[in-house]
Amino acid sequence: MITLQFLLTALVVVIAPGTGVIYTLALGLGQGRRASLWAALGCTVGIVPHLAAATLGLAAVLHTSALLFTAVKWAGVAYLLYLGWQALKDGGALSVQETGTRQSGWQIARRGALINILNPKLSIFFLALLPPFLSGNPASATAEMTVMGAVFMTLTFAVFALYGIFAAAARRRLLGSTRVMTWLSRSFAAIFAALAGRLALERA
After folding, report:
1. What is the span of the domain harbouring residue 158?
2. What pTM did the predictor assign?
3. Residue 143 vs residue 97, higher pLDDT
4. How many domains are contained in the chain?
5. Cβ atoms of residues 147 and 2 within 8 Å
6. ∠ at Cα 21 (70, 84), nearest 5°?
7. Among 27-36, 90-99, 169-178, which is the least confidently predicted range?
8. What is the pLDDT of residue 71?
């Protein structure tokens, strides 16, 4: 169940830069360490519905229902484009500015959770990732997937938190350069737009 191979596989998946990592980095650079930790927490919590779906077999329903998959996908695309706009506009919640918009930890976490919740590919991903590491005992399969999901979430929060702390440390060096901060905001906006485009091309 929790083998070294599973831990290494999960770690590689978590470390790979994705939407959650970009969001956490943007908050770390834009608002500091506290905001980045809330972002990491939100992205981690957003995994829960997908792990539950994979454990209960609901991911297969999502995969076979073109209408449901498409609805969740386009909601995710719209949300990523919204985040890109928030990074691009002056004073936006994700803009990298010394005096940018400040939001509560719960608002930051909620936004991070929605990023993952509105990605229909995550359920299918977990349905493919977890079963190969099961012991083969049907009676304990649900418990094993639950434990592996909890370990995956722990790794996610730890790695995302490290990304955020690194970004917050870099923020102190960047605050004095308006040009660099503007470039970073535009870069984050472009990345969110690119991620939205990639999600739009996904098929069930």
Report:
1. 18-200
2. 0.81
3. 143
4. 1
5. yes
6. 60
7. 90-99
8. 80
> From CA 188, how far away is CA 154, in angstroms rounded?
26
What are residue 12's phi and psi, to 5 degrees? -60, -40
Structure tokens at 45: 């919590």
Q: Which residues contact 50 (CB under 8 A, 6 or more apart)?
A: 59, 116, 117, 119, 122, 123, 125, 126
User: Are the beta carbons of 25 and 170 closer than 8 angstroms?
Assistant: no
Strand spans (E) along the chain: none
- pLDDT surpassing 60 at residue 164: yes
Cα separation, 1 vs 168, in Å, equals 36
* Cβ 117 vs Cβ 46: under 8 Å: yes
In this structure, of 25-29, 59-63, 90-94, 167-171, the range with the lowest mean pLDDT score is: 59-63
Residue 178 burial by Cβ neighbours in a 10 Å radius (0-12, 13-18, 19+)? exposed
* Sign for the pseudo-dihedral over CA of 122, 13, 40, 167: negative
Q: Are 37 and 163 in contact (CB under 8 A)?
A: no
